[in-house]
Amino acid sequence: MGGGGQQTESSEPAKCDGVGPGGGRGGSAVYTWEEVQKHCHRGDQWLVIDRKVYNITQWAKRHPGGIRVISHFAGEDATDAFSAFHPDPNFVRKFLKPLLIGELAPTEPSHDHGKNAALVQDFQALRDRVEREGLLRARPLFFCLYLGHILLLEALALGLLWVWGTSWSLTLLCSLMLATSQSQAGWLQHDYGHLSVCKKSSWNHILQKFVIGHLKYGIKKLKYMPYQHQHQYFFLIGPPLLIPVYFHIQILRTMFLRQDWVDLAWSMSFYLRFFCCYYPFFGFFGSVALISFVRFLESHWFVWVTQMNHLPMEIDHERHQDWLTMQLSATCNIEQSTFNDWFSGHLNFQIEHHLFPTMPRHNYHLVAPLVRALCEKHGVPYQVKTLQKGMTDVVTEEVRGSVAGCVSP
């Protein structure tokens, strides 16, 4: 039991503390980890951030990042996750104040479930260093140049048709160039999508003029997909249909449900621009066929790049682990090269992307040696593969999973 007053069986703070079960201001009760861990159910959720105990039962439903993200840490220490997903923790803390119900007892460790305290402390020290050295700050010039090369690809594709006509070979080449620009625009918006977890980024509106769909909505919906059964549907559903069908439906559905009319208008501006450019060459139905084929190609690019870092790893339900170990067990890196960086939108640094989701991509290569050294110090596997090995592992894992599914009773 905590030492801050008489506790009820439900571990609610004593009434003399002036704190009710729904959360309260300035909670002065103290709790043990055993008490906190009891509140991990859908209708009763507490979590700990920097040793402060918060009752998030009602707030979880209004959490901008979604109820599943915050509920995952119910009954646990969420300090590292809180720091990782909130670019401005001081701004977010004002939302936490009404939820504060107390703190951990002085005799309690800062970390739950017997986590490796030295590893957790070293990772937090690394994050402090990353912040001090400005590695979480973006360089606008990098992204301006990146957007420029996307626009150049689109201009070249349109120029091909304008000068040499719409033969099958030129149309195919145009489709490949458009798919490339779409994939690169997708990586660019994916980067800024992470920065808009807590605050909307104006770059998202700019990018929607140049990217098919809205990745910050589509990617969030992936949490509903049964990744542990991918071997049963991956090749038929994943690469060919993810963006053309699944993302498209879910993106529009989410925008309507949230009544995000501004985002919807910006997304529709892409299609308006596309048809204005290609209707003179292909007509209405030809333009629809072209954009469908481009999205088909883009979907393959997106799925293969993201899955080569994840599918061969542990992708079943997460076990309770510290932030560093949890991310390292679920992903791996693809070795660095100019082509790999460009081809994957710097998602070849998937480990660093997971550990520091708000870090701009151009700084991944700077923090990667520091993460690797930390992993070596604590014996945490840090996997780096070639691009060919990553792609091969996806196929191998799918075949192995399919065979296992066929022979299982």
Automatic annotation (TrEMBL):
Location of the protein in the cell: Membrane
Gene Ontology molecular-function annotations: oxidoreductase activity, acting on paired donors, with oxidation of a pair of donors resulting in the reduction of molecular oxygen to two molecules of water
Pathway entry: Lipid metabolism; polyunsaturated fatty acid biosynthesis
PROSITE patterns recorded: CYTOCHROME_B5_2
The organism's place on the tree of life at top rank: Eukaryota
CDD domains per the UniProt record, alphabetical: Delta6-FADS-like
Residue ranges occupied by any Cytochrome b5 heme-binding domain in the UniProt entry: 28-105
Transmembrane segments: 141-164, 233-251, 271-294
A GO cellular component entry from the record: membrane
Membrane association type: Multi-pass membrane protein
Keywords: Fatty acid biosynthesis, Fatty acid metabolism, Lipid biosynthesis, Lipid metabolism, Membrane, Oxidoreductase, Transmembrane, Transmembrane helix
Gene Ontology BP annotations: unsaturated fatty acid biosynthetic process
Disordered: region residues: 1-23
SMART domains: Cyt-b5
PANTHER family, A to Z: ACYL-COA 6-DESATURASE (PTHR19353:SF12), FATTY ACID DESATURASE 2 (PTHR19353)
Homology family: Belongs to the fatty acid desaturase type 1 family.
Protein name as annotated: Fatty acid desaturase 2
